[in-house]
């Protein structure tokens, strides 16, 4: 299981405080290198002292002959000589390598090249130590350490060859009332059964169990499940709980989890736990059709069977990267598992499945249930997705308006001219980062915040400094915080603490909900921030792989995951429009300005959605206004996510797990926005979209009204630049704000629209969620729900709208409704509470087969019924 170049192994050990086994005797290092082999298990070396840093990467280092004494950059040759197969089933998968120094303010960067000059590993962040691993190391490697930012400082380099040990035979078994302890020689393990079908399994070869992560990730321990019993089955001890049976095999010690019948396998170890100098792995039998998901944000994929999934601090923004990864996976066998750790991990879903973290301990929470239940239990443990302010679901805009090296000297108040542009072009804008860029400060903060509020937008700030300034900034009007390298670059607990602190900083100094963005995170970040997949470069390929990335993140309880519209560094009008179309169906979206150049001319190009002119301006406006109209639908999904852990953007498999077509190549590059919208983005320079997979049921083309019967694959779909392939599920009940809405603040609160797609059979139900949209009063119960049902009985369609239950600031007493009912013939008449509506109150479009019904203003404290009587 090879590790990629940027996994910081030794950093994990430093963060967790794990005690590592003593390495084998080291061969003394020469001035320029050393050998690691089975007889010489570790090496360390000391660098020269560097009076100052280079301020750059390896390009700032002279060639080795011009720097013979390593006075500018340090060079060290490491030769690894191991037998064939040494790395097979090795928990660490390669040679861990790290450099450490004494002065916290200094910074060294680490790079490793093979004998052909190819970079195979690196660690170039702000961590101390900088650490990585040389994957499946064999041969000679050239280590280059760059003193990036140092002041009369040196470092100590270390590397070791990890050796492995397996758990032996069971030597002790005891316990009861939900907690059981087992021993196998030096290894101590404990199984704690928790309510709701949960199990915590810990193991440590030191003989004692530790919890380095403490309460940093886990927000609250589930209650113990004390109704358990044990029995001796000969080859194993069994521990029975109401939801499962844990088998503890005796020779050698292995674990297996089974259904209450003790015959149906959930998971089963095929080998004992194996640990190495700095890692531990678990090996499981893979089911014949078992599928695997999760890992947080995994760029370019959502389904991992047959793949290796990495979980680590990463700055690889491209396909295959995982900068917002999480030590959690979900299995179609009916379970999920979270590793309670800040150590990096690797998960190989082959046969067998091998999973492990880079620490000599196991601390795993297992959750039983279907996928949505598992996500709910996992997020209950590490934190449910936060409830965003409604403006956070509107588009955001980011740029530097002070000391901008890319655009010349400007002033923070110049941001208001951009806000003017959104208003003039009737495009929604929820918030603006007015200082997004390295070295970009701000001025006139209160005036800027007030000016943005006049445009119904909130002030956001990119934060390169510490959190000490946040209180004053929030009091001046800041409501959005974007975190970057200085706050989250070290990842793990560092990133999670920053996310929690930024959210708390906004909420402690205002009545607003914290709204935080960050590009590097860890398990639990869903409780405090929007995760975005980094500084990608523009290409059609970039659009393609983002689709499964964001859908797949939902399977780890990440409800808000996104990328810059049109990327950050290059601009192309067509790709921007295509990217914006489908991202309108993500909850959170942001345009990044001030960094891009035109892909053709190379000249600076800002990326506001009206700058490319027609037809692009009109196309972008159409989808931004559609996003705005759909905010009641998306906001309700956010409220559901805050309760269930399941976000809006979903791979098809989540809603149709019994359909193998949802795991095919076609379904990989489409997603569901909530349960009702199927979005199939165009990710090529083409006006035709092939391979659109529609699961079972009737699907209506949102643009044309044409219906398709699934399961089916649609090829040759005509999708000119203004068309996003978009389909709606039969039975969908979709709340919308009125046409022309451009802000949650200026919407007509006295009208609510319902877009309806009656099913041929059965009753559809929907519950709308509403609150004031901005304060935290919803957490005290200041919210309202309104239930709607729809039924087609063969003689017509009946829509029943219940009373709005609950109250919140700004709630109106009455409102009118506009229903658009898709499909079916023209009704003979339309009834409101049994009374015939006048012909002027409804209409039928024979081309689209849509009936539009408008009601008078009706009190919210009483329900009503609309019936379309079939004209046939």
From TrEMBL:
Signal sequence annotation: 1-21
- A Pfam family (short name) is Glyco_hydro_31_2nd
Q: Which residues are in the Glycosyl hydrolase family 31 C-terminal domain? A: 648-734
Q: Which PANTHER family match?
A: ALPHA-GLUCOSIDASE
Protein family according to the UniProt entry: Belongs to the glycosyl hydrolase 31 family.
User: Region labeled Disordered — which residues?
Assistant: 46-68
So which domain of life are we looking at?
A: Bacteria
User: Which terms does the UniProt entry file under GO BP?
Assistant: carbohydrate metabolic process
- The residue ranges of the Glycoside hydrolase family 31 N-terminal domain are 190-344
Question: Which intervals hold domain Glycoside hydrolase family 31 TIM barrel?
Answer: 501-637
CDD domains, alphabetized: GH31_N (cd14752)
Provide the protein name.
Galactose mutarotase-like protein
Enumerate the spans annotated as DUF5110 domain.
751-823
Coiled-coil annotated spans = none
Q: Which UniProt keywords apply?
A: Glycosidase, Hydrolase, Signal
Q: Which GO terms describe its molecular function?
A: carbohydrate binding; hydrolase activity, hydrolyzing O-glycosyl compounds
User: InterPro entries from the entry?
Assistant: DUF5110, Gal_mutarotase_sf_dom, GH, Glyco_hydro_31_C, Glyco_hydro_31_N_dom, Glyco_hydro_31_TIM, Glyco_hydro_b
């Amino acid at each position: 299981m090879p590790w990629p170049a940027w996994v910081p192994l030794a950093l994990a050990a430093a963060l967790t405080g794990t005690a590592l086994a003593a390495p084998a005797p080291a061969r003394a290092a020469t001035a320029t290198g050393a050998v690691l082999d089975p007889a010489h298990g570790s090496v360390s070396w000391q660098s020269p002292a560097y009076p100052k840093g280079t301020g750059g990467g390896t390009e700032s280092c002279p060639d080795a002959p011009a720097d013979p004494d390593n006075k500018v950059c340090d060079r060290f040759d490491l030769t690894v000589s191991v037998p064939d197969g040494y790395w097979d089933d090795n928990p660490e998968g390669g040679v861990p390598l790290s450099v450490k120094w004494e002065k916290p303010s200094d910074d060294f960067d680490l790079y490793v090249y093979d004998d052909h000059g190819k970079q195979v590993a690196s660690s170039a962040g702000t961590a101390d130590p900088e650490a990585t691993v040389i994957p499946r190391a064999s041969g000679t490697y050239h280590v280059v350490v760059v003193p990036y930012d140092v002041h009369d400082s040196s470092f100590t380099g270390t590397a070791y060859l990890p050796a492995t040990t397996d758990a032996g035979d069971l030597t002790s078994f005891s316990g009861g009332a939900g907690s059981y302890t087992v021993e196998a020689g030096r290894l101590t393990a404990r199984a704690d059964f928790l309510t709701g079908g949960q199990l915590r399994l810990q193991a440590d070869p030191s003989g004692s169990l530790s919890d380095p992560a403490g309460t940093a990730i886990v927000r609250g321990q589930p209650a113990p499940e004390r109704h358990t019993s044990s029995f001796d089955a000969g080859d194993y001890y069994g521990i029975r709980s109401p939801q499962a049976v844990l088998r503890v095999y005796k020779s050698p010690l292995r674990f297996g989890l089974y259904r209450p019948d003790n015959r149906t396998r959930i998971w089963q170890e095929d080998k004992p736990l194996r640990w190495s100098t700095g890692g531990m792995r678990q090996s499981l039998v893979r089911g014949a059709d078992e599928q695997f998901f999760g890992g947080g944000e995994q760029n370019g994929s959502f389904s991992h069977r047959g793949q290796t999934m990495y979980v680590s601090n990463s700055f690889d923004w491209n396909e295959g990267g995982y900068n917002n990864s999480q030590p959690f996976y979900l299995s179609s066998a009916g379970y999920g598992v979270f590793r309670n750790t800040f150590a990096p991990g690797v998960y190989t879903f082959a046969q067998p499945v091998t999973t492990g973290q880079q620490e000599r301990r196991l601390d795993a929470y297992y959750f039983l249930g279907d996928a949505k239940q598992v996500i709910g239990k996992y997020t209950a443990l590490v934190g449910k997705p936060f409830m965003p302010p409604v403006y956070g679901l509107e588009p955001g805009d980011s740029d530097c308006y002070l000391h901008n090296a890319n655009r010349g000297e400007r002033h923070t108040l110049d941001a208001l001219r951009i806000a003017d542009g959104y208003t003039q072009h009737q495009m929604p804008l929820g918030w603006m980062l007015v200082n997004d860029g390295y070295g970009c400060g701000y001025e006139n903060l209160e005036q800027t915040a007030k000016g943005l509020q006049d445009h119904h937008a909130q002030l956001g700030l990119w934060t390169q400094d510490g959190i000490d300034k946040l209180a004053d900034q929030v009091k001046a009007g800041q409501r959005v915080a974007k975190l970057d390298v200085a706050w989250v670059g070290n990842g793990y607990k560092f990133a999670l603490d920053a996310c929690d602190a930024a959210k708390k900083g906004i909420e402690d100094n205002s009545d607003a909900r914290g709204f935080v963005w960050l590009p590097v995170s860890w398990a639990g970040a869903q409780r405090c921030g929007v995760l975005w997949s980094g500084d990608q470069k523009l290409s059609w390929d970039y659009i393609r792989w983002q689709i499964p990335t964001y859908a797949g993140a939902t399977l780890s309880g990440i409800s808000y995951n996104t990328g810059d519209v049109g990327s950050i560094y290059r601009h192309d009008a067509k790709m921007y429009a295509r990217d914006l179309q489908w991202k309108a169906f993500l909850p959170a979206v942001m345009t990044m300005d001030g960094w891009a150049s035109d892909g053709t001319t190379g000249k600076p190009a800002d990326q506001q959605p009206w700058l490319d002119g027609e037809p692009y301006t009109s196309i972008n406006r159409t989808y931004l206004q559609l996003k705005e109209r759909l905010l009641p639908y998306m906001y309700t999904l956010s409220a559901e996510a805050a309760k269930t852990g399941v976000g809006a953007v979903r791979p098809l498999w989540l809603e149709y797990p019994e359909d193998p077509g949802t795991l095919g190549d076609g379904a990989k590059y489409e997603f569901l926005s909530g349960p009702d919208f199927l979005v199939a983005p165009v990710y090529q320079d083409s006006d035709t979209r092939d391979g659109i997979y529609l699961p079972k049921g009737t699907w209506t083309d949102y643009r044309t009204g044409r219906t398709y019967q699934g399961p089916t694959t649609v090829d040759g779909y005509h999708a000119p630049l203004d068309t996003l392939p978009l389909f709606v599920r039969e039975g969908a009940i979709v709340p919308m704000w009125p046409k022309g809405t451009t802000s949650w603040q200026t919407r007509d609160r006295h009208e609510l629209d319902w877009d309806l797609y009656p099913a041929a059979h059965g009753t559809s139900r929907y519950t709308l969620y509403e609150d004031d949209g901005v304060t935290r009063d919803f957490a005290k119960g200041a919210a309202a729900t309104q239930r709607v049902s729809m039924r087609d009985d063969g003689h017509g369609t009946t829509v029943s709208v219940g009373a709005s239950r609950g109250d919140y600031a700004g709630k109106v007493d009455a409102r009118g409704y506009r229903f658009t009912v898709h499909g079916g013939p023209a009704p003979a008449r339309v009834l409101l509470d049994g009374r015939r509506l006048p012909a002027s109150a409804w209409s039928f479009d024979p081309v689209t087969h849509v009936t539009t019904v408008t009601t008078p203003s009706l009190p919210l404290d009483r329900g009503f019924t609309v019936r379309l009587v079939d004209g046939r």
